[in-house]
Specification:
Helices cover 37% and strands 20% of the residues. The chain has helices at residues 20-31, 51-55, 80-89, 100-109, 135-155; strands at 5-10, 38-44, 59-65, 75-79, 116-122.
């Protein structure tokens, strides 16, 4: 049985800290270009086309800016049911056509929800027009990368 991991960075890199997940994915791709059984994917602002790759993996790690009323740059990880619960509690405040909860719901309905799931959220400081994240987000990216690699190592055994 395959033990493939998808690391999905989401957000809009044109909207400053909203692009935190995409910036983290770019760093992970640069640091680990050929990691077996691991795919680092820039999911941008989400699309229904992502459902196929989500349904094909055993492990899913999502990196995204997340509002949890903490200090900008704070990183929190939510695993499995905690991730599902957090996504279910979120108000649909997305400016995009679909949200992460939409993709997870489709995977659940088709009985293809990844067995292990984690959302690594980064508290944004500013969501405005800029391609550069704030210093708080830049400082948080290495912590995010470390968390991702720890999960990959834990799940690969």
């Amino acid at each position: 049985m395959s033990n493939k991991t998808l690391v999905l960075g989401i957000g809009n890199p044109l909207m400053q800290d909203d692009g935190a997940g995409v910036h983290a994915i770019q760093q992970l791709k640069a640091m680990y270009p050929d990691l077996p059984q691991v795919e680092f994917l820039d999911g941008g602002t989400l699309s229904f086309s992502l459902i196929g790759v989500i349904e094909e993996v055993t492990n899913l790690i999502v990196i995204d800016a997340a509002q949890f009323c903490d200090v900008p740059g704070t990183v929190k990880a939510f695993h499995d049911e905690d991730m599902d619960y957090l996504l279910g509690r979120q108000k649909n405040s997305s400016v995009h056509d679909i949200t992460l909860i939409d993709l997870m719901s489709i995977a659940l309905l088709t009985d293809e929800l990844p067995a292990r799931r984690a959302l690594i959220g980064i508290q944004p400081e500013c969501i405005g027009w800029s391609t550069e994240p704030t210093p708080a987000i830049k400082k948080a990216i290495p912590e995010v990368c470390t968390l991702v690699m720890e999960l990959i190592a834990k799940w690969s055994t």
